[in-house]
Amino acid sequence: MTEHATTFPTTATPLSVPPSLRTYQREAVSRVVEYFRSSDEPAVVVLPTGSGKSLVIAELARLARGRVLVLAHVRELVEQNHAKYLAYGLEADIFSAGLGRRESARQVVFGSVQSVVRHLATVSDSESAHGPFTLLVIDECHRVSLEADSSYRRVIDHLRQRNPHLKVLGLTATPYRLGQGFIYHRHYHGMVRGAEDCFFRDCVFEQPLRLMVKQDYLARPLKVDAAVERYDFSRVTTGSGGLFREEELNRVVAASRATPGIIAEVIERARDRRGVMIFAATVAHAEEVLGYLPAEQAALVTGDTASDERYRLVEAFKARQLKYLVNVSVLTTGFDAPHVDLIAILRPTESVGLYQQIVGRGLRLAEGKQDCLILDYAGNPWDLYAPEVGSPKPDSDSEPVQVECPTCGHANLFWGKRDGEVVIEHYGRRCQGLVDDHGDPLDSPGKSGQQCSFRFRFKTCGDCGAENDIAARRCHGCQVLLVDADDKLRDALKLKDARVLRVSGMQLEAVVNGRGLPRLKVTYHDEDGATLNEWFALETPAQRRAFTLAFLRHHLRAPGTGWTPASAQQVCDEQWRLRAPDFVVGRRVGRHWQVREKLFDYQGRYRKADSAE
């Protein structure tokens, strides 16, 4: 083991009487120490807003043997984290232009990523008496991008050049990024959450928000239905980066007749409240909102507000010299005002993560505070306690659904739809469970394993028969380049004995064949009335197994949910469970046509039937 490979001692020797940690904070610290004793892979701790991440960071910095750098993206967080460390009676440096300090000589340094990335050589001085950094802690780590030239990645790469065994720990309340999903690959509860190429490898500890509220560590969120007119953001769409377009938001809120009534209701409901935060959709919207609030009690903070002015206004609000603080996307993280007990949301939120960040501004405990009133005037669909699925919501009707893997039994969480308790559709592709070398579920939290191989939706390799992700370009089994869907259609269209249907409908019938035996007849038809048929027998267990493999696994709207029809009539009676393919390719065999290829989840250049103008 190299000189800089170990970060934490086996047992800690207190340097002073430390602040008291809550049970979950102690467990988080313990999990991190245990993980980094055997791994150099980046790890994540998930703690809700208001749960005391600063104290966990301070304790880890105190325990660390080597040099520690704690990064944040705003000076308020740098200051908060530094203050918690000082509470141990210890000293640490601050490297942040926003705080007017550029110090990096001590063992522990708290810095802003913007300042540190511009002075990497100074901060990581190779002549430092404490040696290279051995632990990097990133607060609000969901801001770490996959882009190699991003600020955080440049800092990490630089520090790793000086110490290849650098430990990287991220802390966040919302471990996902728009356009990426989960920021870590594996969860210690034995499941895969993010992609294999996630920067953070493992989530080593997570404290649920619901439990924090139940145990009175956070104030109770009290969401009420607003009595007045709301904004209608239902037709607003997101841009390529997953964010709502400002021009579309302005189209909804600009001079809206709803705004005066909304603010009047906020003021009425705030009569007995201490601190009110209002989240507006755009700068123009925020300025209009400010105009309806009591001038001497309200202020506005935007991304264009000068740093010193923003600091002055925020401090005035914290000191309760102001009652209302209007903002546009700038106070969702790194803002600590425990007296806030009313949150008014006047903008749509792109994800449950952002919604949780906004509501979290009002959940910190304060003397005499019983709850936080949540007023949502934008019709946001998110449940504060709902788990994050990690992929974009496919449509407004989707909700998180649980789907058990038929192979390993893992309870997957996918976007989907329910009819009562029955999952009628889901969009999951692959089981998220972690299994051992024998394919059995991991029997203890944190144990290493690989992702279960069961795929709910897949495309089959024509060479080796392996099931691949529907977006895969190369087979994971034999590494052959998979035939592109457009190539399949183009090649079929060139053949005289092939028929390609752009499927506009699928019809199921329970029929009897020429020998009087029951059969399931499936008819696919296109917009011009052309058809292709296929037949299935379901009389014996072997026939039903073959039907499942050849038809159900591809056509089920909720694959893997265990539906095993026993007859053709049952399939027809419950055909709402099935989906039609986008294209069907048939080949002439004698006097008949035989279905050879069915394309689902098509994303190519040919028009699908449901895209007709």
Annotation keywords:
15 helices, globular, alpha/beta, 24% helix, 10-stranded mixed sheet, 613 residues
Overview of the molecule:
There is one protein chain. The strands form seven sheets. This protein has a ten-stranded mixed sheet with strand order 4-3-5-2-6-7-1-12-10-11, with helices on both faces. It is built from 15 helices and 30 strands. The protein has 613 residues and is an alpha/beta fold. The longest helix is centred in the C-terminal third of the chain and has 15 residues, at 541-555. Helix content is 24%, strand content 25%. Mean pLDDT is 90; it is low at 11-15. It is globular. Strand 24 and strand 25 form a beta hairpin.
Q: Topology of this structure?
A:
Elements: H1 23-36, E1 43-46, H2 53-63, E2 67-72, H3 75-86, E3 93-96, E4 101-102, E5 108-112, H4 113-118, H5 120-123, E6 133-139, H6 151-162, E7 167-172, E8 176-177, E9 181-182, E10 184-187, E11 191-192, E12 200-206, H7 209-214, E13 220-224, H8 246-253, H9 258-269, E14 275-279, H10 283-291, E15 298-301, H11 307-318, E16 324-327, E17 340-345, H12 352-360, E18 371-376, E19 399-404, E20 411-419, E21 422-426, E22 434-435, E23 450-451, E24 459-460, E25 467-468, H13 485-494, E26 498-512, E27 518-526, E28 531-536, H14 541-555, H15 568-573, E29 583-589, E30 592-599
Parallel strand pairs: 1-7, 1-12, 2-5, 2-6, 3-5, 6-7, 10-12, 13-18, 14-16, 14-17, 15-16, 17-18
Antiparallel strand pairs: 3-4, 8-9, 10-11, 19-20, 20-21, 22-23, 24-25, 26-27, 26-29, 27-28, 29-30
Domain Helicase C-terminal: 262-407
Pfam families: Helicase_C, ResIII
Protein name: ATP-dependent helicase IRC3
